[in-house]
Amino acid sequence: MARVQTALISVSDKSGIREFAASLAGLGVTILSSGGTAAHLREGGVKVTDVSDYTGFPEMMDGRVKTLHPKIHGGLLALRDNPEHLAAAEKHGITLIDLVAVNLYPFEQTVAKPDVSLMDAIENIDIGGPSMVRSAAKNYRSVAIIVDPARYQAVLEEMREKEGAISEATRAQLALDAFAHTACYDAAIYSYLASRAGDGDAFPGFFLQPYQRVSELRYGENPHQQAAFYRRSLPNPIGLAAARQLHGKALSFNNYLDLEAVLGFVREFEGPAAIVVKHTSACGAAVGRSLADAYRDALATDPLSAFGGIIGLNQRVDPETAQAILDGIERHGFMECVLAPGYDPAALEALKQKKNLRLLELPDLASADPWAFKHVSGGLVVQSPDMGTGPPELKVATKRVPTAGEDAALRFAWTVCKHTKSNAIVIAREGTAVGIGGGVTSRVDAVNLAVEKAGDRARGAVLASDAFFPKPDAVDAAARAGVTAIIQPGGSLGDEEAVAMCDSRDMAMVFTGVRHFRH
Fold this sequence. Notes:
- The chain has helices at 17-26, 35-43, 51-55, 70-77, 83-91, 107-111, 118-123, 128-138, 152-161, 168-196, 253-266, 291-301, 303-306, 319-332, 345-351, 404-418, 443-454, 473-481, 495-504, and strands at 6-11, 30-33, 49-50, 99-103, 144-146, 211-217, 227-232, 244-247, 273-278, 281-287, 310-313, 337-340, 358-361, 372-376, 379-383, 395-396, 425-429, 432-437, 462-465, 485-488, 508-511.
- The protein is of the alpha/beta class.
- It has 3 domains: 6-196, Methylglyoxal synthase-like domain (Rossmann fold, 3-Layer(aba) Sandwich); 248-361, Cytidine Deaminase, domain 2; 395-511, Cytidine Deaminase, domain 2, CATH 3.40.140.20.
- The strands form 5 sheets. Strands 8-13-12-11-9-10 form a 6-stranded mixed β-sheet, with helices on both faces. It has a 6-stranded mixed β-sheet with strand order 16-21-20-19-17-18, with helices on both faces.
- Strand 14 and strand 15 (379-383) form a beta hairpin.
- Helix 4 runs parallel beside helix 8 (128-138) and helix 12 runs parallel beside helix 14 (319-332).
- The longest helix is centred in the middle third of the chain and has 29 residues, at 168-196.
- The relative contact order is 0.07.
């Protein structure tokens, strides 16, 4: 392994760069640098040679042109075992560069600002940086390329152990990091410019969304499947990827799917709200005067199905709510996870009594990905997320208008229905779901399942359906159970029969004009 003799340093993120450069100099490495980085290093007492002095070509055009020069890229790309390359380098006074520390203009941070202009965005598109990164990474057998300040210390330690050299295995891994870095950078630029194109197309021509592996999971949906969790490569994580685990063993593949389901529900409400999810579908949901009341009511929807479920809460967990969770576990059995925007210290300590109860904190419940997508073989289906809960003005289709109490219960049931797998039926009283039927292939079967779960609680309750009723059989089943009002999208050829059935039973029915399938 050859010893590192010359390093090129040009960074936007200057975290730890003075210390790194000083350590390199201490190992006898000559340092080339440019612009603001060179000035920053000199201020820290590090001796550097300006790139412009080395190339004999001044920086110009407001720094747009400084490292785009044959003496830079020749020094990076020259094959050390190719006599012709070495002869060309000697002839043209090109110094071989063995290590490069480069990171790029902060494009993503710039475009994340709400008032960013197109010109500001364009000026933060780095050209020389990616060029150096790619040149160094292409020649990784001889050149080490560092794009992440977190790598500085490990590289220094290896150089100290190996008398100033860096192993090919390390250089290969650094090159992988480098190509990932430039790929993510280009994807961010494309995505931003595509969003500004204004061609009326809601979806870009290429769906470029880089994701970074956060952790490997114990297994996938089943123990024989491998799995990992990836987070979108953004300056600041959003949605579930921004959650912080405070307690419990590592999350599983299925935990992540269920947690996403609870997050979608709890972000819908301002007042205290709780949901229990099993296999990505709601098995209990409620709003209440307090968070503890909401959770008790949500658990009471179907405590049998709730066993091993995921709890979602939309407010900071207080000691009373923590005790309600513990009481529920004591009475009904194990729960997997709790997701909430925060925990009072006493509540957190109480919940930590359950070593297998995973506790997650997500202060910003509202942040959401602008895309929703699922994999199919060889591709993706992509859509905008289902963020709406229906129009504020409902269309009354029956002779009887819902009472004020029914109207509030219908709207609540409609929201729960949105977060239940299709075919989805939700029976609710006031702000509590009392019977949920979802994930079945027949709508009348979904009604019968919800009625069975609700029992006597269905009498005087309301019902929500995520899609229209093709036949009146489901309406008849609801009427026989004592349901007094129904909310559904409407739009079926069978609407007239469904409405007539309601009129004959003195039931109210309202149409939303919006469907909420959840496959």
